[in-house]
Amino acid sequence: MKLKPNKREQIFPLPVALISTISNQGVRNAAPWSNITPILRPLDEVLLASWLKRDTLTNIRETGEFVINIPPVGMEEVVMVCSRNYPPEVDEFEMAGLKPRLSEKVKAPGIEGCLAWAECTLIEEILREKFSLIIGKVVNLEVDENFFDEKGRMDFKKAKPLSCILGPEGLTFTCPRDTGRSADYSEMFLGGKGVLSPMP
C-alpha cells in the first residue's frame, strides 16, 4: 500500500515537547511540539520546524529564546489545552493551569511537572515558503532527579516521557517501552569484524 503525501507523517513515532516562550510584552506562551530533534550528539543544538503563523515562532524571533519542556504521561490534557490557537495576548500558562519554573539562562520560564528543561537561544532561522527551521543552542539543561540517575540516564519506565502517533483524524498519545534488547554504542563499530560480516 502506498500512502499519499498528506498521510506520510503517520509512519513516524513522534516526541511530544512543550515549547515555552515569552513575548516582548511579557505574555507567556506554551505550545506542543513534535517536529523537533537534537542535531546529532551531544545535545548542543536542536532543530524545530514551525509553520509561519505561530506565536511561538514570533516570540523566538523577537526574543531569541525558548525552553523545551519534556512532559510525562499524565499531561495529555495540558498539551491539548496548549495546542489551541489562542490570540497572542492570551497567557497560555494561565489557560492550561501551568506553574512556571524559573529559568537560569533565559527569560522564558520552564514548566513545572516536566521531566527535563532545555533552555535555548536562537542561532539561525532557515526560512522557507511555508515553514521555518529554527536552530537553537542549548545553554542550560536540567532534569528532574527523580527520573534520572547520577550518570544522567533517564528511567523511562518510571518517567514515561510523552510521545504520539498521528492518524487520519487525530493523534494517539504513547510512551516508550522496553523491547528487551539493549546495545552498547561500541556495537555500532566494526572493530575486528569484516565490513560484510553477516548478522549472527
What does this structure look like?
The protein has about 200 residues and is mostly beta strands. It has one domain: Pnp Oxidase, Chain A (Roll), CATH 2.30.110.10. It contains four helices and twelve strands. The protein has helices at about 55-65, 75-80, 90-95, 155-160, and strands at about 15, 15-20, 30-35, 35-40, 45-50, 65-70, 100, 110, 115-125, 130-145, 165, 170-175. The chain has a seven-stranded antiparallel β-sheet. It has a three-stranded antiparallel β-sheet with strand order 1-11-12, with no helix packed on it. Strand 11 (about 165) and strand 12 (about 170-175) form a beta hairpin. It is globular.
Which terms would index this structure?
FMN binding; globular; Pnp Oxidase, Chain A; mainly beta; Flavin_Rdtase-like_dom; Flavin reductase like domain-containing protein; 200 residues; 12 strands; flavoprotein
How much beta, percentage-wise? 25-35%
Q: Which class best fits the helix and strand makeup?
A: mainly beta
CATH superfamily: Electron Transport, Fmn-binding Protein, Chain A
Task: Please give the CATH class.
Answer: Mainly Beta
Provide the succession of SSEs. Answer: EEEEEHEHHEEEEHEE
Helix content: 10-25%
Q: How is the biggest beta sheet arranged?
A: 7 strands, antiparallel
Q: Look up the CATH topology.
A: Pnp Oxidase, Chain A
Number of strands: 12
- Average pLDDT works out at 93
Shape: globular
Q: Which sequence of strands runs across the widest sheet?
A: 3-2-6-9-10-5-4
How far apart lie the N and C ends? 32 Å
Radius of gyration: 19 Å
